[in-house]
Write a structure and sequence with these properties.
Layout lengths: L7 E4 L5 H12 L3 E6 L2 H11 L2 E4 L5 H15 L2 E6 L14 H22 L3 E10 L3 H4 L5 H21 L5 E7 L14 H14 L8 H12 L10 E4 L11
Parallel strand pairs: 1-2, 1-4, 2-3, 4-5, 5-6, 6-7
Helix pairs in contact: 1-8, 3-4, 4-6
Bound molecules: NADP nicotinamide-adenine-dinucleotide phosphate (NAP).
NADP nicotinamide-adenine-dinucleotide phosphate binds next to helix 1, strand 2 and helix 4.
C-alpha cells in the first residue's frame, strides 16, 4: 500500500511501543518518517532498525523542539503528518502527588504536546494531519491515574480547539484514545513484575474483547487518520480499547 507516498511524517517518542509501530506502519504506506526520542542510543538503534531518520529531542525542553523543527526544515522542508505520541505514565494515589511528579507528567504529556504542535506549525503543510496520542484514562477514573488522566483529558480538550482554529489551513487535528496496550511504558513505572502481572490480569478481565491492544492495532488507526481517506475527520476522538469504554453494568 502506498497511500502516504511523498508525505513526510514525524513521530515523537518513536523509539518504542506505539510510536515505533506507527513509524513502521507510516513507512510501509510510503511516508518518509522521522522519529524522535529523548535517549540518543535508543533513538539511533530504533531509527536503524526501522530505516528512518532519528533525531534526539526531549519534548519537555522547548529549545530542543526548536532545534528539531530547524533540522527537519533543513532536511525535508515541510511536514504532512505530525504524530504527537511521546508520553509517560507515572501512577500515584491522590494523597501522594508531588509537585515534581505533577510537573514532570504534565510537562511531557500536555505541555510537551502543545509546544510540539506550536513549534511545528511553521513547517506543517496546509492540509496536514496532526494526531494526538491520548488515552481512555481521560475518562475512566482509574485509581492512581489522576494526574496522568488529567494530562490526557487536557490534550483531548486542546485537540478540539486546535481543530477549529487550524481548519482554515485545512490542518486536521484528531485524538486517539487507546485502552491498555502492551508496550514498555508499564515497565518504566517502577512497578514490580508481580504488580504488573496482577494489573494486566485485572485489566484484561475488564476488557470486553479480553485482550490488551498491540502497538500495531493503534498504528493502523494512526495511519488512517494520517491519510487522505480521513480528509473529512477533524476534532474527533477515537477510542481503541477492546470495548473497555463501554463499561457494561452487567457483563
Ligand atoms: N501503553 C498503553 O497502554 C497506553 C495506553 C494509552 C495511551 N498511551 C500513550 O501512548 C503513548 C506512547 O506510549 P507507549 O505505551 O508506546 O510507551 P513507550 O513504549 O514507553 O513509548 C513512549 C515513547 O515516548 C518517549 N518519551 C517519553 N518522554 C519523552 C520526552 N520527554 N521527550 C521525547 N520522547 C519521550 C519514550 O522514550 P524512552 O524510550 O526514552 O522512554 C518512548 O519512545 C504515550 O503518550 C502514552 O501515554 C499508552
Amino acid at each position: 500500500m502506498s497511500k502516504l507516498n511523498g508525505k513526510v511524517a514525524v513521530v515523537t517518542g518513536g523509539n518504542s511501543g506505539i510510536g515505533y509501530a506507527s513509524a513502521a506502519e507510516l513507512k510501509s504506506q510510503g511516508a518518509s518518517v522521522v522519529i524522535t526520542g529523548r535517549n540518543s542510543e535508543k533513538v539511533q538503534a530504533a531509527a536503524e532498525e526501522l530505516g528512518v531518520t532519528g533525531i534526539v529531542a526531549d519534548v519537555s525542553d522547548l529549545s530542543a523542539i526548536d532545534s528539531l523543527v530547524e533540522q527537519i526544515k533543513g532536511e525535508f522542508g515541510t511536514v504532512d503528518i505530525l504524530f504527537v505520541n511521546a508520553g509517560i505514565f507515572q501512577p500515584a494515589p491522590v494523597s501522594q502527588i508531588s509537585e515534581e511528579m505533577f510537573d514532570h507528567q504534565m510537562g511531557i504529556n500536555f505541555k510537551g504536546a502543545v509546544f510540539t504542535i506550536e513549534k511545528f506549525l511553521s513547517i506543517l503543510k496546509d492540509g496536514a494531519s496532526i494526531i494526538n496520542l491520548s488515552s481512555v484514562n481521560a475518562y475512566t477514573g482509574m485509581p492512581n491515574t489522576a494526574v496522568y488522566a488529567a494530562s490526557k483529558a487536557a490534550l483531548n480538550s486542546y485537540t478540539r480547539t486546535a481543530a477549529t482554529e487550524l481548519a482554515p489551513r485545512k490542518i486536521r487535528v484528531n485524538a486517539v484514545n487507546p485502552g491498555p496496550v502492551y508496550t514498555p511504558i508499564f515497565g518504566k513505572t517502577g512497578m514490580s513484575e508481580e504488580q504488573m502481572n496482577g494489573f494486566a490480569e485485572a485489566m484484561q478481565n475488564r476488557i470486553p474483547l479480553k485482550r490488551f491492544g498491540q502497538p500495531e492495532d493503534i498504528s493502523k488507526l494512526v495511519a488512517f487518520l494520517a491519510s487522505d481517506d480521513a480528509s473529512f475527520i477533524t476534532g474527533a476522538e477515537y477510542n481503541i480499547d477492546g470495548g473497555i469504554n463501554v463499561n457494561p453494568l452487567v457483563a
